[in-house]
Amino acid sequence: MTDTPIRWFRDGRLARLRLQRPARHNAISTAMWRALPVLCREIDADPEVAAVIVEGEGVFSAGADITEFGTVFADADSTAAYNAAVRSGLAAVEALDRPSIALVRGLCVGGGCGLALACDLRFAGDTARLGITPSRLGLAYSFADTRRLVQTVGPARAKDMLFSGRLMDAAEALAIGLVDRVLPDGEAEAAALDYANGLAERAPLSLRASKRMIEAMMAGADSDTAETAALYEAAYRSADFREGQAAFAERRPPRFRGR
Question: What is the mean pLDDT of the chain?
Answer without folding.
Answer: 95
